[in-house]
Write a structure and sequence with these properties.
The protein is mainly alpha-helical and 449 residues long. The protein has 17 helices and no strands.
Length: 449
C-alpha cells in the first residue's frame, strides 16, 4: 500500500478548490432531461427486437386504468423516485465494475444491493400506482439489471457474442420500460420521449463500463457522475408525467427543488466517497479518478452553499468538507495498513469536524438547525462510512454493500433536515411566483439557470 491516500499529491481530495458559485449544482429541468436524453444515447438504442418477456405494450397500456390513489404526497413520491433512480445508476455501475475486475464475490454483493434497490422501486411504484403497476414494472427493471450484468460479463471475457446478446436484451427492455412509462403517464409522456430517456440512462452505464475496462478511469468516472445526474433528474421528469398535472405542480416550487438539489448532491457524495475509500484502501489504479470525482461533488456542494449564504460561507464550508473527505480517505489507508494509531488519530479528527461543521451550519442558518442534533447526524454518517470500509477491506462484501446502502438512505433524511433549515433561513429570498419568475436569488440552485 502506498502513502498516496494519506499524502495524496495528485489524487488526494484537495482542500482548496476554486469555488464555483452554484452553476455546477443547478438542477436540470425535467423537460430538458426527457427531450435531450436521446442526444446521449447514440448507439445504445438498437433496432427493435421481438419481446420475449411480458408485459407487452398492450398489457402495459392497461396499467393506466388501474392506478390506485397514491398514499405518498406527490412531492415525496417524486423525491423518493429521484433518490432510488440515482442510487440504482451507481449501484449498477459498481456491479458492472465488480464483474470487470473479475471479483465474483463483490459482483454478487453489488447485485444484492441492486436487488434491494429494485424492490424499493417496485414498492414505490406499487404504493403510488397500485399492485398491477408494481407487478408489471419489477420484472422489467430486474431484467434490465440482468442485461447490464451480462454486458459487463461479455466485456470482461472479451466475448463479443455475449455482449451482442446482452445488447439485444437491453434494447428489448428499453422499449418495454418505455411502453410502461408512456402508458402509465396516460398520454402525458410520448413513447419516443420515454425511449430517449431510458436509452440515455443505459448509454451512461455502458460508457462507464467500456471506459473502465479500457483503464480510462477519468472518462469512466465522468460517465459515472453523468449517469447519476441523469438518472436522478429522470426521476423528476417521470414523476412530472406520471402524476396528474395538478399534483405535479409542486415539483416546480422553490422549496421542493431545493430539497431535490440537496438530495442529489448529498446522495452523490455518499456514493463517490464510498468508491474513493474503497479504491484508497486497496491502492486501486482508479483512485486518482475516484478522488477527482469527489472533488467535483465537493465543489458543487460549496457552490450551493455560496448561492444560499454567500461566498465567504462557501469558502468556509468547502475547506471543512474537503478536510473531512481527506480524513475519510486517510482512514481507508490506515485500515489497509493495519495502522491502529492512525485510525485513532483520524477518529479524533472526524469528531472535531462533526462538531465544527454542525456549528458552522447552525450559525449560517441563524439557529434554524440544532448544532447538537446535526453533529450527531454527521457522526452517524462518518461511522457508517468507516464501517463499510472495514467490511470491504475484510472482504465481507455483502456487509460492505449493506452499510453503504444504509448510508445513502440515511443521507436522504439528513438532506430533509438541512433543506428545511436552509429554506427557513433564506425564506425571504424565495419568490412566491412560478418557476418562470426566475426564483430570485435561488435561481442558480433550484432553477438550472
Amino acid at each position: 500500500m502506498t502513502s498516496r491516500p494519506e499524502d495524496g499529491p495528485s489524487g488526494r481530495p484537495r482542500s482548496r478548490l476554486a469555488v464555483i458559485a452554484g452553476s455546477a449544482v443547478a438542477v436540470a429541468l425535467a423537460a430538458g432531461c426527457i427531450a435531450g436524453a436521446g442526444e446521449d444515447a447514440a448507439g445504445t438504442g438498437a433496432a427493435a427486437v421481438q419481446a420475449t418477456a411480458p408485459p407487452s405494450a398492450r398489457a402495459a397500456a392497461g396499467i393506466a386504468t388501474a392506478l390506485a390513489p397514491a398514499p405518498l404526497t406527490p412531492a415525496e413520491l417524486a423525491l423518493q423516485l429521484q433518490a432510488l433512480l440515482g442510487q440504482h445508476s451507481m449501484l449498477a455501475a459498481d456491479m458492472m465494475r465488480g464483474r470487470l475486475r473479475n471479483d465474483p464475490d463483490l459482483a454478487q454483493a453489488a447485485d444484492a444491493a441492486l436487488g434491494k434497490n429494485t424492490e424499493a422501486m417496485g414498492n414505490l411504484v406499487g404504493s403510488a400506482f397500485g399492485s398491477q403497476a408494481e407487478q408489471a414494472f419489477t420484472p422489467l427493471w430486474s431484467g434490465h439489471v440482468t442485461a447490464l450484468f451480462n454486458y459487463s460479463r461479455g466485456v470482461a471475457e472479451r466475448n463479443e457474442g455475449v455482449t451482442a446478446q446482452a445488447m439485444v436484451s437491453i434494447s428489448r427492455f428499453e422499449n418495454q420500460l418505455a411502453d410502461f412509462f408512456a402508458a402509465a403517464s396516460q398520454g402525458r409522456l410520448s413513447k419516443a420521449a420515454a425511449v430517449s430517456a431510458v436509452t440515455a440512462h443505459v448509454s451512461h452505464l455502458l460508457e462507464q463500463c467500456d471506459a473502465y475496462a479500457a483503464e480510462e478511469y477519468a472518462r469512466s468516472d465522468a460517465a459515472y457522475r453523468r449517469g447519476y445526474a441523469h438518472s436522478f433528474e429522470l426521476g423528476r421528469a417521470l414523476a412530472s408525467t406520471l402524476l396528474p398535472p395538478a399534483d405535479a405542480k409542486v415539483l416546480a416550487t422553490p422549496a421542493w427543488r431545493l430539497r431535490s438539489a440537496l438530495n442529489k448532491l448529498l446522495g452523490e457524495h455518499v456514493q463517490l466517497v464510498v468508491a474513493a475509500m474503497r479504491a484508497g484502501a486497496t491502492d486501486a489504479p482508479d483512485f486518482g479518478a475516484a478522488a477527482a470525482a469527489v472533488n467535483g461533488n465537493t465543489t458543487d456542494l460549496a457552490g450551493a452553499i455560496g448561492v444560499l449564504f454567500g461566498r465567504k460561507a462557501a469558502t468556509s464550508f468547502q475547506q471543512l468538507w474537503a478536510d473531512h473527505i481527506d480524513l475519510l480517505v486517510a482512514y481507508a489507508a490506515a485500515i489497509a495498513k493495519g495502522d491502529g494509531a492512525a485510525r485513532t488519530r483520524i477518529g479524533t479528527g472526524l469528531r472535531a469536524f462533526e462538531t465544527t461543521l454542525a456549528g458552522f451550519l447552525h450559525g449560517a442558518t441563524s439557529d434554524k438547525v440544532s448544532a447538537a442534533a446535526l453533529a450527531k447526524a454527521l457522526q452517524s454518517h462518518d461511522t457508517m462510512l468507516r464501517q463499510q470500509t472495514d467490511a470491504f477491506v475484510a472482504k465481507e462484501y455483502t456487509a460492505a454493500h449493506d452499510a453503504a446502502y444504509a448510508t445513502y438512505q440515511e443521507m436522504y433524511a439528513l438532506s430533509d433536515r438541512l433543506a428545511q433549515a436552509f429554506g427557513q433561513a433564506v425564506a425571504k429570498r424565495l419568490p412566491v411566483g412560478p418557476a418562470d419568475t426566475g426564483r430570485g436569488g435561488m435561481a442558480a440552485v433550484v432553477g438550472g439557470r
